Amino acid sequence: MHGAEQMLPAADMPGWLAGIEWGGSGDSGEMQEIASQECLFDDDPKREQAAAVKTIGARMRQARELCNLSQSAAARRLGYANPSKLSKVELATDTNSVPLWLIVRAARVYEVSVDYLFGVADDWETGVCRGVQGWMFDVWEKFRQRDLASLEHLHAEIAAVSTHLTAVAAGAHEVAQALDTLRARNPAFDDMPASGTLAGRLERLQERARAGELALKRFRLNLRPGAESESGQ
Length: 233
Fold this sequence. Notes:
By secondary structure, this protein is mainly alpha-helical. The chain has helices at 15-18, 25-35, 45-66, 71-78, 84-90, 100-109, 114-118, 132-185, 195-222, 227-232.
């Protein structure tokens, strides 16, 4: 033998070896067939990369909202000094890449699977039977829509109260100015019966209008996200 093993002629082979197809033209033909197979993915890698980054960004935002975390709070837990970089990831501003360490940290912080963040699976919570999370999400979305409708109704009511209260305060101020004009043009006004009662009641009306405006302002401040934590500091 020199180099590769020399093959015996088929006639000289034992009977149980003669029927075996040995390497040579058969193997090269098989390799050519494999090489000629088309790629399984038709999309351009750059477009596929951009689509994957957008999917990861959307899943990152959904996972954060499922944990009821603001972007600032989530950014701090993930290791960012400010939420700007996390915002860029969620909005897929940079379609070239997403830090791999961020995906690993997000899976831990949000308690979701990496497959969910990559868009491979729709089940976000680990350790739950498949199909249950879809039902949970539908229920959560239903309650979210209900709460949003309630908040919109509350906002409309607050706007109406604010408008009327502002009008009452403005009206009380106008009446006070009219009373001052009447007193200036009628020096004997203060000697008239019930003039003191009228002036006193008008003054109380102005005080209540100012108190109402202040209470409404405080109420609006308390409705802001994070107002409770700020007041507790």
